[in-house]
Write a structure and sequence with these properties.
Elements (H helix, E strand, L loop, with lengths): L1 E11 L3 E4 H5 L6 H8 L3 E4 L5 H16 L6 E7 L10 H9 L7 E4 L5 H14 L5 E9 L9 H4 L4 E15 L4 E7 L3 E2 L12 E2 L1 H23 L8 E4 L4 H10 L11 H4 L6 H11 L8 E8 L1 E10 L2
Parallel strand pairs: 4-5, 4-6, 11-12
Antiparallel strand pairs: 1-7, 2-3, 6-7, 8-13, 9-10, 12-13
Helix pairs in contact: 3-4, 7-8
The structure holds oxa(dethia)-CoA.
Oxa(dethia)-CoA binds next to helix 2, helix 6 and helix 7.
Length: 315
């Protein structure tokens, strides 16, 4: 089977920045608590932008970065739990707004914070069965619509944003050794659906999710490296889902990862769920911390409960 490389990246965040001091006006909290427990200083929140605007802008930047035309795209997947519509899918509206071909699959995928990695794997499989060789994978969230702004244990954590990747399939690349998993659970992290009696807002057992994450990330890394027949030293950059800086620091310490190899932008964006990994990738490329040939090991975890890891090279 052919593998994929990332050939283009883009990001989009709303203009409005909500600081910890702003949140302290809304709930009983303070900057010191939020920074010391999470590492988060600000998050971007949609005021005038829609989820679709974020998707579209990130996608346009990624397509331009790849230097291809929308007509060359063979599939479009948006990983999200917070699209503007249940139907039509955000990916379907992107088909129209970007001018993607009509004879390609376009759909949204819900695997919460692991969504981008699940979508990358699905894209790899789709492109193996397609005559077209480019795919568009987006992680986008407008979590500000799903946050209970009266719950201080969750409302301080989340932000809005999007990251997009254009990937290319080729027999020159080995099929990616992605690890994906799921353990069905609605107690640890829950967003009720349209038919539910309760309001559709995020509730979370934070401490239990924290424990789940610090156990799962090292396991995913070990499984990816084993499948890939690679070592920690082969990895140029580690990108973990940005849920809490303490989770990332814990893993860096436990696995003796050189801190400069592990990217963090949670301080600026908070937890943007499915957007967090592609947003980090796009920013790493902007900052020239990754470039052609860089091997990036990514790990995601979150609602479902779901988890996933993969190692991808940049073209
Ligand atoms: O993307 C999905 C994955 N999500 C995650 O990975 C989230 C993982 N979990 C976490 O990041 C952390 O568990 C939190 C940041 C959510 C919470 O941190 P914690 O250290 O686990 O705090 P806690 O929930 O155990 O709360 C400790 C105390 C409590 O007070 P008492 O009961 O000890 O008096 C909370 O009521 O902190 C209180 N607290 C707050 N105080 C000030 C909770 N939220 C706040 C707040 N400001 N915003």
């Amino acid at each position: 089977m052919d593998g994929i490389k990332i050939v283009g990246l883009g990001k989009s965040v709303p203009q409005k920045i909500l600081t910890n001091d702003d949140l302290a006006q809304m709930v009983e909290t303070n900057d010191e608590w939020i920074v010391s427990r999470t590492g988060i200083r600000t998050r971007h929140i949609c005021e005038t932008e829609s989820h679709q605007d974020l998707c579209l802008h990130a996608a346009k930047v990624a397509i331009a970065d790849a230097g291809i035309e929308p007509g060359q795209i063979g599939a479009c997947i948006v990983a999200t739990v917070s699209a503007d519509n249940v139907c039509p899918a955000a990916a379907c509206l992107l088909q129209r707004d970007l001018g993607l071909p009509e004879d390609i699959p376009c759909f949204d995928l819900n695997a919460a914070c692991t969504g981008f990695l699940e979508a990358m794997h699905v894209m790899e499989c789709i492109l193996n069965a397609s005559a077209r060789k480019f795919g568009l994978v987006i992680g986008c969230e407008e979590l500000s619509h799903l946050v209970n702004w009266e719950d201080r244990s969750t409302c301080i954590l989340f932000g809005d944003g999007a990251g997009a990747a254009v990937v290319e399939s080729s027999s020159e690349y080995a099929f990616t050794d992605t690890v994906l998993g799921c353990r069905g659970d609605e107690a640890l992290l829950h967003i009720p659906g349209a038919g539910a009696a309760e309001p559709s807002v995020i509730s979370m057992e934070g401490t239990a999710v924290f424990r789940f994450a610090v156990e799962m990330i090292p396991k995913c890394i070990a499984q990816v490296l084993e499948k890939k027949q690679a070592t920690m030293e082969d990895v140029d950059c580690f990108v973990f889902h940005q849920a809490n800086a303490r989770i990332i620091d814990h893993v860096v310490h436990k696995l003796h990862i050189p801190p400069e190899k592990c990217f963090k932008n949670i301080q600026e964006y908070g937890n943007t769920s499915a957007a967090s990994i592609p947003l980090a990738l796009a920013e790493l490329k902007e900052l020239k911390k990754i470039g052609p040939g860089s091997k990036v090991l990514m790990v995601g975890f979150g609602g479902g409960m779901t988890w996933g890891g993969t190692m991808v090279e940049l073209a």
